[in-house]
Amino acid sequence: VEAVHLIADGKAPRIPQPKEGATYEGIQKKENAEISWDQSAAALHNWIRGHDKVPGAWATIDGQVVTFYGSSLLDASVPAGQELAIKGASRPGLVTKNGLVVFGNDGKMVLVRNLQFEDGKMIPASKYFSADETTALELTDEEKKMAEDIR
């Protein structure tokens, strides 16, 4: 009761909390989330997973910042895929049917499922090389009639 009265009267002591021993981490910033490629696959996975969704772990590919989402450790033989040069990585990544495979400095692999470009467009990592392809939507006669009715 005494503490409540001191607060109500504006006479309660104000002791700033010391920063030493504090466990709260401030809001992560995008510029601090760049992937350092000189790490083991487990460390890369934890970095990507730890920054998933905000702010998103990123690397530079083809001169563009690309954010990595949905990583998992891959314990298998090296899959077939198309090589993708990643700035700072000692070994190119592989775009496979399951996603983007990147390599740690221990030779082990991490599978990344989704990539997001600077313009906000997100794609499955497996579609990296086909991201620019567009397909035309073709309607059946019934759908064309329905579209006309809706108009």
TrEMBL record:
GO terms for molecular function: catalytic activity. InterPro entries: Formyl_trans_C (IPR005793), Formyl_trans_C_sf (IPR037022), Formyl_transferase-like_C_sf (IPR011034). Pfam families: Formyl_trans_C (PF02911). Residues 29-130 form the Formyl transferase C-terminal domain. It comes from the Eukaryota. This is AL1L2 dehydrogenase. It comes from Podargus strigoides. The gene is Aldh1l2_0.
